[in-house]
Amino acid sequence: MWAVYASLLNVGPMVIAPPISGFVITHYGYYANFLVFALLAFPALAVLPFVKPYVKSSKE
Amino acid sequence: MFSEKKGNAKIPFSYYIGYGIFYMMQGYSMTFLPFFMPGYMTRVLGLSVVDAATIMSIVFIPWAIKILPGIVSDAVPWGRFGRRRPYIALMSIVAAFSAFGLMLITQYSTLFVVLLFCFYLGVAFTDAVTDALALDAVPRERYGFMLGIGWGCRAAGACLAGIFGALLLEVYGWSAAFLSAGIPCLLMTASLAMKEPKMTTEKRITKALLKEIFTSKHFYIGLVFFPLSWIAMGGLMFFEPFCIEIAKFSETQAGSLIALNYLGMFIGAPLGGRIADKIGHKRGYFIFTFLWASSIASFTLIGFGGYVIALVILCVYGFFDGMFSSAQMAVAGDLIPLH
Lengths: 60, 339
Prior knowledge:
The complex is a heterodimer of chains A (about 60) and B (about 350). By secondary structure, chain A is mainly alpha-helical. Chain A has one domain. Chain A is about 70% helix and about 0% strand. Chain B has about 350 residues and is mainly α. Chain B has a single domain, classed as Up-down Bundle (Growth Hormone, Chain: A), CATH 1.20.1250.20. Chain B is built from 14 helices and 2 strands. Chain B is globular. The interface between A and B is large, with 51 and 78 residues.
C-alpha cells in the first residue's frame, strides 16, 4: 500500500508539474514559474481535513 | 549489534544505516540527473524548454506508476528470498546500467529517452520497495523518524551531487558524470541490510483486503490529496537553466546552490519528522506547508540579490522542504492499513 501513496505523491511534481512549468516559463518567464508553484502548495490543504489515518493515532 | 528498543520491538542500527545509505546513493543519482538533465537537453542536445519538459514528464512516468511494482512486490514473493529484497537487487542493477548506457549517447535519439526511462524505472521500483521494506521492518510509531532519516540522507547524497557532479561536468564532461550517476545505483543495494519480517497471515495480501482498500473512501481521498500535495516541488525542475541563463551563475555555483539546498533539507527532514511525530502528522503538514510555500516564492529574489542571497534562499528552502516532506510522508504512512 505504501507504493500506492508513494506513486501518487510523485504524480504531482514529476508528471503534472513539468508541462505546467514548461508552459509558464515559455510564456511568462522563470519568476512567474516560481510564484505559480508557490501557490500550488496550497490546494492540498483543502483536502487535508478529509485525510484520516487508517488506524487513528492517539495524537491525531 | 547495537539496537534501539521501542516497546517490545528492537530496531537494529544496521536498518537505519542500510536505509540511510540507500537514500544517500539514490539522492546522488536522482539529483544529478533531474537537476542537470534539463540543461543538458536544452543546451547540449538543442531541445526547446517545452520539448525537454515533455521528455521529463515521460521518463518520470515510472514514479507515477509505482503502484504497479508496489502491488507486484506485495503480492508476488520470490520464494525464500522474500517479496522485497530480490526486487531491490534486480532493479538497482537496471538503473545502474541505464545510466552507464547514457554515456554512449552523443545526440538526441529515441534510445536516449528509453535509457532515461529505464533509469527512472529502476530507481522508482527500488524506492517503492525499499520504503515498503522499511515499513514492514519498523513499528508504526517510528515511521516519522525512519522516513526522516531516509529523507535527510537523500539530501546528503543530493548535496554531494550538486558539488561533485558539477565539478565532474566541468572537468571531465558528461560521460564521467553519467558514470558517477550509475555507480551509486549499485550501492543502493545497501538497503538489503534490512531483513524482511516473517509474513504473518494478517500481513498477507488477500482479495478481501484489496477490496477493503479500494472501496474505502480514504483511498479515494488519498487519490486526490497526494498528487496535489507535492506538485509545488515541480517548480524547481528548470532551476539549473534559470541559474545559468538568467542569474548568470557558473555550473559549479549552480551545483553549490543545490548542494546547500540539500544541506538544509538534511537538517530539516529529521527535525520535521520528530516535530510531526510529536504534534501530529497532519498538524505538522499544515504548518510546514506555509513555510515551504513562502520559501518557494522567495526564489523570485535570486535574480536581484546575487549569489550570496541565493545561497541563503536555497538553504532555507531546503530546510523547510525537508520538514514538509517528512510530515507529508508520515501522513502517507498513517494511511497504510498493515503493509
